[in-house]
């Protein structure tokens, strides 16, 4: 097994990356996958339609209408306009909050329009990078029911992830459970963010919470997406539970994914089973993966994982294993199958968006039942292997 000092090396690597996450604003979803491109498209469109003078006049009028003592109503179009017009100023942020609260109050019990504001508002806060305000508004009793959509939770939680607010992600998920909404008990996109938060927190408490959630999902017959599985497996390795990582990884049908293979090698080395890790390292020397598009995906291992395998082998002090490992690594290097990308970067790579028509042709029933709030100028669909209902 890895020595305590070796485990610290791995953890320090993750901690360094965590600092970079905050500085570089890493997103688990690319902007298009959470509809941020939709928001920015309509924001730019509105900017081109209204002069600065017209925008200021509108703000002043809305400020009067939003007053609790005013008998004027806040209409759907009013709120739509301010959400796409708002600037990063305290006055604008206060105005939009006042308008949302009045709109939500006047529509209690009877909604005249069918526009869903929750996800769009969260995209607004995401665009402005205001996680604290987004969280405050989400938790405000006056906004009850306003954000009860999976898309709203997902955008908010990704915004929190971007800003390193991992504890708050777990708080949001707990609040979703308490609301007992008529939605899936374990929504795939939300669960991915929850397990990502547990992985980033990397504490015994967060790991135990992840284990509890995993067990609940298994008992309910829920199949987590691959990204959720890799976060849980990495968390288990960090928390001295490589045996759990091995079992979790085995639950994935297709074992050829880069993240899974890197994690499995690490877990095996951690268990002192380096001999079992060698065939995995050797297996990619002649195994490119053909994709449906006709392109070939090169399989590889992360440099930090290779370094850890070498350290584990040196600790065993078995000359035969060391020689074989040296030969394998030399071949991997010659074929450019060792990447400088860290395992943490690989785990936190963005969920991307692909064309809906390609997805629909492969999954007609799923695509037909898929609904999205406030669709933009073009119908789109999210897809990553195993993800069929992110939003």
UniProtKB/TrEMBL annotation:
GO molecular function: RNA binding
Gene Ontology CC terms: mitochondrion
Swiss-Prot/TrEMBL GO biological process terms: mitochondrion organization; regulation of mRNA processing
InterPro entries, per the entry: PTCD2
Official protein name in the record: Tetratricopeptide-like helical domain
Gene source species: Cinara cedri
Phylogenetic classification of the source organism: Eukaryota, Metazoa, Ecdysozoa, Arthropoda, Hexapoda
């Amino acid at each position: 097994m890895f020595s305590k000092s070796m485990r610290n090396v791995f953890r320090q690597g993750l901690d360094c990356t965590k600092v970079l996450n905050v500085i570089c604003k890493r997103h688990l979803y690319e902007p298009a996958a959470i509809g941020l491109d939709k928001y920015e498209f309509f924001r730019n469109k509105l900017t081109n339609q209204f002069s600065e003078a017209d925008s200021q006049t509108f703000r002043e009028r809305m400020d009067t209408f939003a007053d609790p003592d005013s008998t004027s109503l806040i209409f759907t179009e009013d709120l739509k306009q301010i959400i796409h017009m708002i600037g990063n100023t305290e006055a604008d942020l206060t105005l939009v909050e006042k308008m949302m609260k009045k709109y939500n109050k006047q529509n209690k019990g009877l909604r005249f329009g069918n526009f869903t504001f929750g996800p769009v508002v969260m995209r607004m806060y995401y665009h402005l990078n205001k996680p604290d305000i987004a969280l405050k508004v989400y938790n405000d009793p006056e906004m009850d029911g306003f954000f009860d959509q999976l898309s709203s939770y997902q955008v908010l939680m990704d915004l929190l992830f971007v800003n390193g607010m991992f504890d708050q992600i777990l708080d949001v998920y707990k609040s979703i459970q308490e609301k007992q909404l008529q939605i899936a008990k374990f929504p795939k996109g939300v669960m991915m963010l929850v397990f990502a938060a547990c992985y980033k927190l990397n504490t015994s408490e967060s790991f135990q919470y992840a284990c509890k959630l995993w067990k609940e999902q298994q008992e309910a017959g829920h199949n987590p997406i691959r990204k959720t599985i890799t976060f849980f497996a990495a968390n288990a390795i960090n928390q001295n539970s490589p045996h759990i990582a091995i079992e979790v990884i085995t639950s994935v049908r297709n074992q050829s994914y880069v993240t899974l293979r890197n994690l499995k090698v690490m877990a095996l080395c951690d268990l002192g089973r380096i001999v079992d890790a060698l065939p995995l390292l050797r297996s990619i020397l002649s195994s490119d993966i053909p994709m449906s598009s006709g392109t070939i995906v090169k399989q590889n291992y992360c440099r930090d994982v290779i370094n850890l395998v070498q350290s584990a082998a040196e600790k065993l002090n078995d000359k035969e294993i060391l020689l074989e490992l040296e030969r394998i690594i030399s071949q991997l290097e010659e074929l450019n199958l060792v990447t400088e990308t860290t395992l943490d970067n690989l785990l936190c790579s963005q969920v991307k968006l692909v064309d809906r028509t390609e997805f629909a042709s492969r999954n007609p029933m799923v695509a037909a039942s898929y609904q999205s709030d406030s669709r933009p100028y073009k119908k789109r669909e999210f897809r990553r292997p195993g993800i069929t209902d992110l939003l």
